[in-house]
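Consider a concrete sample entry:
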Amino acid sequence: MGLGFGPAPGGEMHRLFFALWPHDELRARIDETAAALEREHAPGGRRLKPDRYHVTLQFLGDFRPLPGRLVEDAVAAAATVQAPAFGLPLDCVGSFRGSNVWWLGHGDTPDGLRTLWDNLGRALALRRVPIKASGSFVPHLTIQRDVRRQIPSTPIAPLPWRVREFVLVDSRPGRPYDILGRWLLV
């Protein structure tokens, strides 16, 4: 039975990805931290709005129109993933060499996050859902785009985060993110 995902009106672009999704209170604390970093370091660029904060787990790609069968297979794969809830304190700010973004992250990838990433990747492969992988998994939450200068990895006051779920996101230009599915961690 289909989930009702079909071609988008007007053939608009869809960017699909699995992500960690901060709860509202954490989003507010991230935004406060981002504002303080912006005041202190004046990176230029533009700060993301709190409703855009996420940590990408697996990127499925950009599509026009939205491929309903791919979404159904991705949802089915995610439903088979088993992984424990875990802590992911956001305790540093940084930027990638040659990038124009600032991000928040954690010095070491927690075992629970690595387990979730691995298990989701295997589940997607079993359902033949292609992913667009960059060479390695570097979990981060983007807070600033189009910056004029980079920042070395710098410790910040930790923002505790107990990760209890992951989501499938449909991102369309100029629109709020659309959560297509939500899966709890045990």
Q: What stands out?
A: Residues 5 and 68 are 4 Å apart (CA to CA).
